[in-house]
Structure formats: structure tokens, C-alpha cells
Amino acid sequence: MIRFAAAAALLLSAAPALAQDDSRIVLTFETGARTGMVMVALYNSASSFDGGSGQPTAVAAVRASGRAVEAVFENLPAGDYGVKAFHDIDGDGEMDTNPFGMPTEPFAFSNNAVGNMGPARWDRARFTVSGETAQTISLR
Questions:
Q1: Are 139 and 87 in contact (CB under 8 A)?
Q2: Taking the C-alpha atoms of 81, 86, 87 and 91 in order, what is their torsion angle to the nearest 10 degrees?
Q3: Nearest residue to 62 via CA among 19, 26, 12, 98
Q4: For residues 24 and 118, what is the distance between their CA atoms, to the nearest angstrom?
Q5: DSSP codes of every residue in 39-102
Q6: How far apart are CA 30 and CA 66, in angstroms?
Q7: Closest to 79 (Cα-Cα) out of 107, 108, 118, 48
Q8: How far apart (Å, rounded) are the C-alpha atoms in residues 111 and 126?
Q9: pLDDT in tens, 59-108
Q10: What is the pLDDT of residues 47-57, one digit of tens each?
Q11: Which of 62, 70, 71 is nearest to 42 (CA)?
Q12: What angle do CA 11, 15, 21 make, to 5 degrees?
């Protein structure tokens, strides 16, 4: 579903443009397993967040070595952001799904937002960032 390698390349090429701002987001993910990676995508607009094909503003892959995993995004412009994340327990770099397309690995959205017959929408996941902002998100 989410291809983080391409998004990571996009992030690296955009890093100099982001360096002029000073907002910081600290995301703490509560996990149930201590294996694999927590894959995080940060979005700064409804069109990229809800569209599914929009590129994230930034991405992170953080080793799940404890019950809480922290991802930090720095040097961001102040504004509205939304997060999509999943716990890649088997480490294959993709969100596993069942034959009906339902996720079989834990996932979450900023604000611990939940969707209605699908992923959470921007209006539920959006949060405002100015300076340092922190959130704790439960992967389920």
C-alpha cells in the first residue's frame, strides 16, 4: 500500500527546503510488539492525506524495540499536519492485508482518529503545529 522507499527519496531531496523553519513534531507510538518497524508518513494537506496518491511531506521508519516508539520531524513550517502510520511487524516494508484489503498489521492516524469503513479522513486526523508539538498514538 504505502511505498516508503520512494517517499524517503522525496524527503531527502526536499530536506534543504524544509531547513528554514523551526517547528518540530514528536510522535510517540504505543506498540504491541517489539519487532519490525513503525512506518510513518506525515502530510501537510487534505488533498495529499485523503487522496491516497499524494506524496507525504516527510516519512520515517523507526525500529520497534520497545512498547513505545518515537518518531521526530524537525525544521517544519508551522501549519496543519496529519499522520498515517503502521507497524510493519514482519519487516517487509509493506502494510499486509487480508484478501478483502483489510489491514492485518496494526495501524493508526494522528489524533488517534478512526475512519468509517476506511481510513481516517484529514478533518479527524489534522492537528496544528507551531513550535514543538507532541502526540501519543496507539497502533491497533
A1: yes
A2: -110
A3: 26
A4: 29
A5: EEEEESSHHHHHHSSSPPSEEEEEE--SSEEEEEEEEEPSEEEEEEEEEETT-SSS--B-TTS-
A6: 9
A7: 48
A8: 7
A9: 999 999 888 899 999 999 999 999 999 999 999 999 999 999 999 999 99
A10: 999 986 779 99
A11: 71
A12: 125
> Per the structure block, which three cell numbers stand in for 17?
527546503
With beta carbons less than 8 A apart as the criterion, state whether 76 and 52 touch: no
| Distant-in-sequence, close-in-space partners of 47: CB < 8 Å, separation ≥ 6 | 54
User: Look-up: residue for cell 495501524?
Assistant: 107
Residue 109 cell numbers, joined: 492516524
What does the block give as the cell for 107?
495501524
Say what the alpha-carbon torsion angle 58, 66, 63, 82 is, to the nearest 10 degrees.
-20
Q: Which residue has the cell 498514538?
A: 137
Amino acid at 28: T
